[in-house]
Design a protein that fits this description.
With 213 residues, the chain is of the alpha/beta class. It has one domain: P-loop containing nucleotide triphosphate hydrolases (Rossmann fold, 3-Layer(aba) Sandwich), CATH 3.40.50.300. 49% of the residues lie in helices and 15% in strands. It is built from nine helices and eight strands. A five-stranded parallel β-sheet has the order 2-3-1-4-8, with helices on both faces. α6 packs across α7. It binds BIS(adenosine)-5'-pentaphosphate and magnesium ion. Magnesium ion binds next to α1.
Length: 213
């Protein structure tokens, strides 16, 4: 099963993608997590990506597309994968469609997790992220067992550099301008499904599972 998670920053794409990945045993591919890991490890890619990310802008398509195309060719993706944060622009979506067409394949579902902008800023200021394993928490709705420490791997949790309220607003603007058109793009391909992302996360997941089954 090949799935795309669509939705605004903070809609819960990552939260849901992790659960889909574990239930259906397919890799979770988050371009944001890949970039953050590269920044943390000081790689060339990380150095290039950081400037864009900290401003709430998108990393250029040419740095993003090859990375994903290489990843989905790997052996563990042969039964499918869940893409989180990619594609994010029409050129990225076209590159993905073309790469899959070449091998006679196509995406199965594009799941749009719908959350209005008003809810997003609050969620983001409470989010804490583990840059080591990609786990996410929320200081009110899903706190870690020990404050500031990841339950999974014991690393320190951080407020992402791009989760400051002014950067979140910029990310929302970028989302509406460059990513929201993908809703139409996948609707036209006949694979778009929308779920209400404002309900508790267990309910969001149940709604997604009902679609995938
Ligand atoms: P990325 O890491 O993808 O960030 P994003 O799209 O802005 O989305 P987030 O990760 O912030 O939110 P999410 O939807 O995953 O929500 P989460 O599950 O954490 O990208 C970061 C940056 O990298 C981009 O700005 C860009 O610069 C660059 N980049 C990445 N991909 C790129 C690409 N393809 N092209 C170009 N540039 C790219 O949930 C958020 C919070 O809400 C959490 O605290 C969570 O616990 C809580 N929550 C989740 N669900 C619920 C619920 N149902 N109810 C209440 N709280 C909830
Ligand atoms: Mg995420």
């Amino acid at each position: 099963m090949k799935i795309i998670m669509l939705g605004a920053p903070g809609a819960g794409k990552g939260t849901q993608a992790k659960q889909i990945s574990s239930k259906y045993d397919i890799p979770h591919i988050s371009t944001g997590d890949i970039f953050r890991a590269n920044i943390k490890n000081g790689t060339e890619l990380g150095k290039k990506a950081k400037g864009y990310m900290d401003k709430g802008a998108l990393v250029p398509d040419e740095l993003t597309c090859d990375l994903v195309m290489d990843r989905i060719k790997q052996e563990d993706c042969k039964n499918g994968f869940v893409l989180d944060g990619f594609p994010r622009t029409i050129p990225q979506a076209e590159a993905l469609t073309a790469a899959l067409e070449k091998i006679g394949e196509k995406m199965d579902f594009a799941i749009n997790v719908d959350v209005p902008d008003e809810n997003i800023v609050n969620r983001m200021s409470g989010r804490r992220a583990c840059l080591e394993c990609g786990a996410t928490y929320h200081i009110v709705s899903i706190p870690p067992k020990k404050e500031g420490i990841c339950d999974n791997c014991g690393s320190e949790l951080v407020l992402r550099d791009d989760d400051k309220p002014e950067t979140v607003q910029k990310r929302l603007d970028v989302y509406h301008e460059q990513t929201q058109p993908l809703i139409d793009y996948y609707d036209k391909q006949g694979i778009l499904k929308t779920v209400d992302g404002t309900v508790p996360m267990e309910q969001v997941f149940a709604d997604i599972v009902a679609i995938l089954q």
